[in-house]
Design a protein that fits this description.
Helix content: over 70%
């Protein structure tokens, strides 16, 4: 079952409602968000660097072993290989270790990532290296080639770069198209696949564009479409960002539904989503929910969020927690503080991953 995004309207077509409830229980347990995606994408660079270092160490050990065994033929062979490498370097520049001789030749010559000998995966890795080396123009060439040849991670990174003006001129239309392409082609990927976080993030980016629209374009604000897109990513992929946005839509809607809002915010909060924790805490403590337990739970989530605040952009969370703490009864304060400390101690990895 595929939920495609129509090229003409960008909307999701297909039986979305069925997907919202099909397998809901098992699909709302994943914890993915755009920050995690950035770290996972950065991990491509780190893994490649580690692999390179491992190859170097193996090469050194192999060379040492062969050198110790001696032999005129071995010396000639090594010298011949060394000479060949030096000849390549003289014409092509420094070599970059690669998975194949053809790919190595393409990269040594400084050829663009669209060289026919490069696979999309190799182009993605090359683009990752160029990006973290500060060579973002070269990264764009490699990532474009990988994206044009069906690599969703490359398309996702290009969308992020264009949406944020990261190494390129900010262009929301181009960013929208990259995210739309991912949503159209990979909507029914398994929620447990390694690329699922990036696909879910693309849905969230699309939904965010529909909330605000794009100036001077055919993409106009469309809350209904945004809700549909967030609902898909929240239910099928279990994306914490999507669950947060969906919860906030239920709060801001004219037909406000605080129970549905609390449901989605709680799913995101339990996965470590900072803003969801703060908004859920506010809703439980100051909203239409009543009773000692809801007050405690609300102040507990506010306290967890406040202790995780990192930066002036999140100062509102501290202000909200301090105001609520000041209004709370002493028994609520003590119980919520105890629960907040317990949650923090029980979820150190979750907190670290969600930053």
């Amino acid at each position: 079952m595929q939920a495609a995004v129509s090229p003409s309207t960008g909307g999701i077509a297909g039986p979305i409602i069925l997907l919202l409830f099909f397998g809901m229980k098992g699909r709302t347990s994943g914890a993915v968000n755009s920050g995690c995606c950035e770290r996972e994408w950065h991990g491509l660079h780190l893994c490649e660097a580690r692999a390179k270092a491992t190859r170097r160490r193996r090469a050194v050990r192999t060379s040492s072993s062969r050198a110790s065994s001696g032999g005129r033929n071995m010396r000639i062979t090594v010298f011949g290989c060394f000479s060949a490498v030096m000849m390549c370097a003289a014409f092509a520049g420094p070599a970059i270790a690669q998975d194949s001789a053809a790919a190595a030749a393409a990269r040594m010559s400084g050829a663009a990532a669209s060289a026919p000998d490069l696979s999309p995966g190799e182009a993605l890795r090359a683009g990752t290296r160029f990006y973290y080396a500060g060579k973002k123009k070269r990264a764009l060439d490699s990532l474009r080639f990988a994206a044009e040849n069906g690599h969703p991670l490359a398309a996702w990174k290009l969308g992020r770069m264009y949406s944020r003006g990261d190494g390129v001129k900010e262009d929301d239309i181009k960013a929208f198209e990259y995210f739309r392409e991912i949503a159209s082609n990979y909507a029914d990927d398994s929620p447990s696949s390694p690329r699922a976080p990036f696909i879910a993030s693309a849905f969230v980016e699309l939904g965010s564009y529909y909330l605000t629209g794009i100036n001077d374009s055919a993409i106009q604000p469309n809350v209904a479409r945004a809700r549909e897109i967030f609902s898909y990513a929240a239910s099928y992929f279990g994306d914490a960002d999507a669950q947060y946005h969906l919860g906030m839509l239920y709060l801001d809607d004219s037909d406000r539904d605080i129970r549905m809002a609390a449901r989605w915010l709680k799913l995101a909060a339990k996965k470590g989503h900072l803003k969801a924790q703060a908004r859920l805490g506010e809703l439980l403590f100051t909203g239409d929910f009543h009773g000692f337990d809801n007050k405690v739970a609300g102040l507990m989530w506010l306290t967890v969020a406040q202790r995780r605040v990192d930066g002036t952009d999140e100062a509102w969370i501290t202000e909200l927690q301090e105001r609520s703490f000041g209004l709370a009864e002493e028994s609520v304060r003590r119980r919520s503080t105890t629960l907040a400390e317990s949650w923090m101690q029980a979820n150190p990895a979750l907190i670290a991953d969600s930053r």
